Amino acid sequence: MNLNQLHYYKEKTGYTFEQLAKLSGVPQGTIQKIFTGETKRPRRETMQALEAVLCPDVSNRADWDDESAGWEKDYYTAGAVRESSTAYHVRKDGYTLDDYYALPDERRVELLNGVIYDMAAPSTVHQYIVTFFTSALFNYVTEKKGGCMVFPSPVDVQIDCDDRTMLQPDVVVICKRSKIINRCIMGAPDFVLEILSKSSRKMDLKLKMAKYAQAGVREYWVVDPDGEKTYVFWTDEEDLIRVYGPDEDVPVGIFENELTIPMKRLFEIVRELKGEDGQVPDGDGDESDRS
Q1: pLDDT single digits (tens) 170-200
Q2: HTH cro/C1-type domain: from which residue to which, for each copy (predicted)?
Q3: Model confidence over 22-33: pLDDT tens digits?
Q4: CATH of 1-60, one of 3.40.50.2300, 1.10.260.40, 1.20.120.1630, 3.30.365.10
C-alpha cells in the first residue's frame, strides 16, 4: 500500500494520528513521519499494522502482494465480465474507491460509475501533446498571475465526490483551489482535455463526455492526433461543439478566448513522431473496446 492509499483510508475513517497510534501500536511520531513522506521506506510490520486498522478488509487478503492475483480471480469468478476485445471489469454490485485504491501502483485504471477500465501505457505522441498543452496553459496562467492551476495526467479526479468514479483526464485546469487536496481533485475541473486514440474513442466521446457534462465541467477538449482535429465542447451557450482543423488556432473559452493554442505547430511535431506509417501508436488511452 502506498502513501496515497493510506491518506485515502485515513480520510475515510477520520482517525487522528493519536487514535491511529493507540489502535495500531505504532508510535505517533512514526505515523506522522510516514504520512508526511519524511519516512520513505517504512518497515513492513509498521505498514501492516496501519493497514490492519485503516482497511482491515483489504489488509487481510492473502494475495495483497501477489501481483494482484486476487484481482484477476475476483474479475473472472465474482461476477466480472471481460471479453478478449475489451479491458473493462464489471461486478454486480459495482466497484468502489476501496477497490480502486487496493490495486497495485503499476496498474493504470479509471473507475467510472462502478466499472473499472484498464489504461494502456501512453505513446510518445500522447505525452508530447500533454506536455504541449500543459506548458501553454501553465505559461498563460503564470503570465496573468491567475488563481487557476494546471495538472497533467496522472492525477486523480473524484469528479462526483462519491466512491464510484475516479478519472484521470490527460490535462485539467482547476480555478477553485478548494477542490484541490493532496490525494486528488474533488469535483469538476473547469477545463478538461483528452487525447483521442482508436482504443479511447468511445470512452472520450461518449462515456467520459457524458460524465463531464453531468458534473459541470465548463470546457471539454478532445484532440485527435490521427484525424488532426480538435473538438471543443461547451465553450458558450450557442454552440455545443466546435471542430477545428490542423492549421487553426483554437481559443480557450474559460480564459475568455485570450489564449489561443497554435494547433498547426502541434500537428507538425505529431506528424514527425508518428513516423512513416502516419499512424499514432494505439497506446495512449483506455484499452476498452471503442467500436
Answers
A1: 999 999 999 999 999 999 999 999 999 887 8
A2: 6-61
A3: 888 889 999 888
A4: 1.10.260.40
Task: Determine contact, residues 184/272, Cβ cutoff 8 Å.
Answer: no
d(CA 22, CA 14): 14
Hey, what amino acid is at 82? R
Specify the 3-state DSSP secondary structure of 217: coil
- What's the pTM? 0.70
How far apart CA 215 and CA 65 sit, in angstroms, is: 36
Which of 3.90.1570.10, 3.40.630.30, 3.40.190.150, 3.40.50.720 would CATH assign to domain 124-274? 3.90.1570.10
State how far the Cα of 110 lies from the Cα of 107, in Å rounded to an integer.
Answer: 10
